Structure formats: structure tokens, C-alpha cells
Amino acid sequence: MSTPSPTRIATALPADCRTRLMEMAQEVNFDEGTRLFREGGHADRFWIVRSGTVTLDVHVPGRRAAVVESLGSGELVGCSWLFKPYTWRLGADAMTPVRAYEFDAARVRMLMDTDPVFGSAIGHWVGQVLAHRLQATRIRLLDLYAPYGSGSFL
Questions:
Q1: What pTM value is reported for the model?
Q2: Dihedral angle, C-alpha 81, 24, 77, 70, nearest 10 °
Q3: Distance (Å, rounded) from C-alpha 38 to C-alpha 136?
Q4: Of 56, 78, 90, 126, which residue is 20 to 30 A from 66 by alpha carbon distance?
Q5: For residue range 48-72, what is the model confidence (pLDDT) as tens digits?
Q6: Which of 128, 140, 127 is nearest to 69 (CA)?
Q7: Residue 2's pLDDT band (boundaries 50, 70, 90)?
Q8: What is d(CA 73, CA 118) in angstroms, rounded to the nearest whole number?
């Protein structure tokens, strides 16, 4: 039996904050193979997956982009919208047809500024997601690029 992910919205945000955030949601759909965003692009929105799979990838010079994580239902797609200069640090693709909730980043940041409880909850949630993604990326890159037998695995 698996435990709920602490980074999924249902687990990570208090009900009142979750409700306030979802009031700003717009339902969107992405076809399989759609590029949601590219590393280096302007991060002006984010998504919560309703169904389907989104992969996050990192550019690797001279190679194909390395997939570092797959995201599913209830997971946040995009964290760069919260931090200046609002530039995507990773890329994202819809690996299957995806249904998602889309959020306007500026609108959410404005509510975060005016409501400290909401702002704190969202900030902690995104921080938790970032910590998880950093660890997942580190492990995935070690899997892909550490010399065999180097002892670089966990």
C-alpha cells in the first residue's frame, strides 16, 4: 500500500487554501506530445494535473533532454512562476493526453501577497515540491550519467 505524496495538492494544502486556489482554476487539456513549456521560457502560469502524465526534463548539451520526473494526478506542474525572474528551469511534455487545472501565476502571487495565510501555505507547498524535485533530479541524473561502479548511487 502506498502513502499519499506530501507534494500532491490534496495532502499538501489545507482545505481552505486549496478551495481558494481552485477558485482561480481554468480547466485545460493537452494532447499527447504537447510541450507545456521549455527551459528558459517565461513562467507565467502553472498547472495541477487532473489526469494523464506530464514529464519534466532538463536540457543536456549534446544529448537529448533527460527526463527527470513523471507527474500525475494532483501534482503541481511548474514551480518557476513563484520566483523572479519567472523563468522555467525545466521543460515539460504531455506524455499522455492530459487534463489539468491551469492558474494565472500573477493572479495567484497577488492573492499570496494580500493573504499571508494563503501565501504561506502556497509557499510551503511549492518549497516542498522543489525539494522533492531537486532530489528526484539528482537521483535521475546520477542514474543516467554517473560512471558505472563509481559508488555514486544511493
A1: 0.85
A2: 170
A3: 19
A4: 126
A5: 999 999 999 988 888 888 888 899 9
A6: 140
A7: very low
A8: 22
CB atoms within 10 A of CB 113: 10
DSSP bridge partners of 55: 70, 93
* Single-letter code of the amino acid located at 25: A
What whole-number distance in Å separates Cα of residue 129 and Cα of residue 149?
Answer: 31
In 3-state terms, what secondary structure has residue 87?
strand
H or E, element range at 116: helix 116-145
Find where cell 502571487 sits. 109
Strand partners, 144: none
- Look at the block and give the residue holding cell 493526453: 97
Q: Is the dihedral of CA 32, 144, 46, 81 positive or negative?
A: negative
Q: Which three cell numbers stand for residue 76?
A: 503541481
Query: String of b and e for 116-153 (b: at least 16 CB within 10 Å)?
Result: eebbebbeebbebbbebbeeebeebeeeeeeeeeeeee
Number of alpha carbons in the 13 Å side-chain half-sphere of residue 19: 3
Residue 52's SS3 state is: coil
Residue 27 corresponds to which cell in the numbers above?
480547466
Residue 35 contacts residue 106 (beta carbons within 8 Å): no
